[in-house]
Specification:
247 residues; 2 helices; 49% strand; 2 domains; five-stranded mixed β-sheet; Immunoglobulin-like; 9% helix
């Protein structure tokens, strides 16, 4: 009985949760080199951000115009997001005639200009100097209130890599506790989300891993392990995040 009471109290205290969206700037620098393609030293290159689910967030740099279709990994990422070759706010230009240092930055927003939540993200780099797939690599970093600096080892076509995140502050999403409710908040994994103008629902682990994404207000995570989960309810103008317990 004591353990059950503790769970209820803990769940109640954590029923109001906000999502941290740390403001700041990510600086990315790398020096490029050829892949051995027949157009070398001419090359096209793209650098972009994806979240930890492999979803396109924003392009930072794209020196590629007429031959951009040969940056197949970047093409696939942007196309999957429904915004093929998106270069909103990116550094852009034509095919480069030689290799050198490429620099770009990210302000923590997606291609729609919306601030993204803190968490794990990847910097992707891709370069080709032929009519086909060239070299590409990705590098993990964490966007949060802590500054970080890393210099990954060189990979094919990319050397002297520097990835620096410098936070400037933390903003918090406004939520309305009474606008959304979950019935029950403890169950074997089946929950009904109650509220108006709900557009999408996500369920994530406490560590932030995406478990489920749905437009249905009835969710089922009965196949997951026992424990607490975050339910993220997105409406047209707001986001509400609550914790539920799956026993």
């Amino acid at each position: 009985m004591k353990n059950i009471v503790t769970i209820f109290v803990f769940a109640f205290l954590l029923s109001l949760i906000t999502v941290a969206q740390t403001t700041g700037e990510l600086s990315v620098t790398t020096t490029t080199s050829e892949t051995g393609g027949n157009y070398a030293p001419r090359n096209i290159v793209a650098i972009w951000i994806e979240n930890d689910q492999g979803e396109f967030v924003k392009t930072l740099l794209a020196y590629a115009q007429n031959r951009k279709t040969h940056l197949n990994t970047w093409q696939a990422s942007t196309t999957a997001a429904g915004t093929a070759y998106n270069t909103t706010d990116a550094i852009t230009g034509a095919t480069k005639s030689s290799h050198g240092t490429r620099e770009c930055s990210w302000d923590g927003t997606d291609y729609n200009g919306l601030a993204v939540s803190d968490g794990a993200y990847y910097v992707w780099m891709e370069l080709t100097d032929k009519n086909g797939t060239g070299n590409y690599s990705s590098f993990l970093f964490t966007k949060d209130e802590n500054p970080s600096s890393q210099t990954p080892g060189g990979v094919p076509s990319f050397a002297s890599i520097s990835i620096d995140w410098q936070p400037t502050g933390v903003s918090v999403l406004e939520i309305s506790e009474n606008s959304i409710s979950i019935n029950p908040n403890q169950s074997d994994g089946n929950y009904t989300i109650l509220g108006d103008n709900i557009e999408e629902i996500e369920v994530r682990s406490i560590s932030g891993k995406l478990i489920l994404k749905s437009k249905s207000q009835i969710i089922d995570i009965s196949n997951q392990q026992t424990g607490f989960y975050l339910v993220i309810v997105k409406t047209k103008n707001s986001m509400v995040i609550k914790k539920v317990y799956k026993y």
